[in-house]
Amino acid sequence: MATTFRWGIIGAGWIASCFVKDLLVDPKTRGVQDVSHKVTAIGSRSVERAQEFIDKFVNGDKEVAAYGSYQGVFDDKNVDAIYIGTPHTYHYDAALAAIKSGKHVLCEKPVTSNAAELRSLIAAAKEHKVFFMEAMWTRFQPLALEVKKIAEEGSLGKPVMLHADLSGDFDIENIPKSHRILDPQLGGGALLDLGPYPLVWAIIALYENPANNKGFPTTITGSMLKTPLTGVDSSTVFTLSFTPSETSSLSALAILSCNITLDAPEPGVTIRFERGTIIINPPIYSPRSFKVVYLNKGVAGKKEGATAHGELARTFEYVGKGWHFQADEVARCVRDGKLESELWGHDKSLLEMDIFDEVRKQGGYVFPPGVGKVTA
Ligand SMILES: NC(=O)c1ccc[n+]([C@@H]2O[C@H](COP(=O)([O-])OP(=O)(O)OC[C@H]3O[C@@H](n4cnc5c(N)ncnc54)[C@H](OP(=O)(O)O)[C@@H]3O)[C@@H](O)[C@H]2O)c1
């Protein structure tokens, strides 16, 4: 029997609609038999918007409660977990209130605006014994699971160099300065919005590599170009170096970038190993194809499906856009009494937020007073 997991959604905006559409996809279409999902409540700052959201995205289901406040959802007994889809700088308050109400939490990326907020939330989640996870959906997609398997099965050797970029044209000259991508009060800019995606690949391929033994990057560098419109970063480059130590034998670099004015074609992700390269095609937040180029053709020739030139290509098909895999993870973790995911645990979100704090510091991006609810 599948466990039916009941979701309450906070913030009736764009990303919440994407998540809910995927939640309503029959899990059997992706081979999932043990968990299923139900949306039971929507919370908005306006009850009319909550009801409109239900009518549009939850098939007008009369059993779904519409609330004109987020607290209504936190207090609803028919909700197992809260999905937080508000702008970055509202994640902390919503997540803390949900945790204090005893609800499990899946919170959009970036999980908070800084690392201090995240440390406070993790402590609260532990105190209240609830599951807490950043919605790093890419980590749970079948392509990421397969890349990780190939990266670590041995024939490629250790990773040495990783390049990843995510950019998009947000038409910043023509959107209101209050848009969340431009407004510093909402943590606007490229790093917090797009940066999690190049970074997730560095975490998967380098931080998670067994040779690294969960070592923190030895060096982090960051450089930002700011838009004169509001002062948020329009273009950011950051690098991570992993150097050998008593506990790690990894020697690798990640060169990561993001931008809010550049459109396709995006370069995707390239992970270069001692004996080959993995090339992941964009979009890097939910890629559907990648190839492995083995430098040692003798090894490639023995790989099932590899060409004589040492190339192995993989594509992935599923119904939905890829947000549902993280929902399956939450449902399973909660069913099994876990407080964090093994695939995207608290340590990885903390690593992300510590890196972003450092890159903002080096890039000279200071939030306006009051944006970070916890600062030390
Ligand atoms: N995983 C992904 O692929 C992905 C993609 C895009 C965005 N995101 C993340 O999801 C979050 C929301 O992004 P979005 O594009 O959905 O944003 P959005 O549409 O601008 O806002 C989402 C909702 O947040 C609520 N909200 C609460 N306080 C707000 C305020 N002061 N200003 C504006 N909205 C406020 C609003 O809902 P109510 O009016 O109903 O309360 C709004 O509809 C961000 O953290 C972003 O990084 C993730």
UniProtKB/TrEMBL annotation:
<dbReference type="InterPro" id="IPR055170">
    <property type="entry name" value="GFO_IDH_MocA-like_dom"/>
</dbReference>
<dbReference type="InterPro" id="IPR050984">
    <property type="entry name" value="Gfo/Idh/MocA_domain"/>
</dbReference>
<dbReference type="Pfam" id="PF22725">
    <property type="entry name" value="GFO_IDH_MocA_C3"/>
</dbReference>
<feature type="domain" description="GFO/IDH/MocA-like oxidoreductase">
    <location>
        <begin position="146"/>
        <end position="278"/>
    </location>
</feature>
<dbReference type="InterPro" id="IPR036291">
    <property type="entry name" value="NAD(P)-bd_dom_sf"/>
</dbReference>
<keyword id="KW-0732">Signal</keyword>
<keyword id="KW-0560">Oxidoreductase</keyword>
<dbReference type="GO" id="GO:0000166">
    <property type="term" value="F:nucleotide binding"/>
</dbReference>
<protein>
    <recommendedName>
        <fullName>D-xylose 1-dehydrogenase (NADP(+), D-xylono-1,5-lactone-forming)</fullName>
        <ecNumber>1.1.1.179</ecNumber>
    </recommendedName>
</protein>
<comment type="similarity">
    <text>Belongs to the Gfo/Idh/MocA family.</text>
</comment>
<feature type="domain" description="Gfo/Idh/MocA-like oxidoreductase N-terminal">
    <location>
        <begin position="5"/>
        <end position="133"/>
    </location>
</feature>
<dbReference type="InterPro" id="IPR000683">
    <property type="entry name" value="Gfo/Idh/MocA-like_OxRdtase_N"/>
</dbReference>
<feature type="signal peptide">
    <location>
        <begin position="1"/>
        <end position="20"/>
    </location>
</feature>
<dbReference type="GO" id="GO:0047837">
    <property type="term" value="F:D-xylose 1-dehydrogenase (NADP+) activity"/>
</dbReference>
<dbReference type="Pfam" id="PF01408">
    <property type="entry name" value="GFO_IDH_MocA"/>
</dbReference>
